[in-house]
Amino acid sequence: MSVKIRLQRHGKKGKPFYWIVAADARAKRDGKYLEKIGTYNPNLNPAIIDLDIDKAVEWLQNGAQPTDTAKNILSYKGAMLKNHLVGGIRKGALTQEQADVKFAAWLEVKATKVADKEAGLSKAESEAKAKAFAAEKAVNEARIEAAKPVVEEVVAEVAVEEAAEAAPETIDEAAAKAAE
Length: 180
Hints:
- By secondary structure, the protein is of the alpha+beta class.
- It has helices at about 55-60, 70-75, 80-90, 95-165, 170-180; strands at about 5-10, 15-25, 35-40, 50, 65.
- It has 5 helices and 5 strands.
- It has a 5-stranded mixed β-sheet with strand order 4-3-2-1-5.
- The chain starts with a strand and ends with a helix.
- The model has no long low-confidence stretch (mean pLDDT about 85).
């Protein structure tokens, strides 16, 4: 029986969510599986991957072949590196302690890279919000400026009307008075 480590799709249309499973190669994509190794949620940035590294290494040691995407996920989380280190221990090239130190150092470096990416994404998001706020503020100020002359014209028209009411004479009446 050939075993594959692959993704099993769950979630609704347009919102995929995957289980990372060890399954018989002849089984359907979303069919029967041997063991669930983890989950993968690509809907978020960065994607959330929850993986039991020890189970994945155990399946890899037993001969399970990961699919391309599953292999990328296993590499991202360090399962492929740990499998490589376990092979080195088995051959006698490394001791368990040396392998644990190398793996811990790799995990630490990887954690800083992920934290830097998250910080960069949050910084970019906040800059985009600030830029949008500044643009909206400029549009609002332009709208206010466009409305001010209309208010001044209305005030000027009201003043002319008040002056006309205060002077009851028309031009004809004023001319007739002057002629007298």
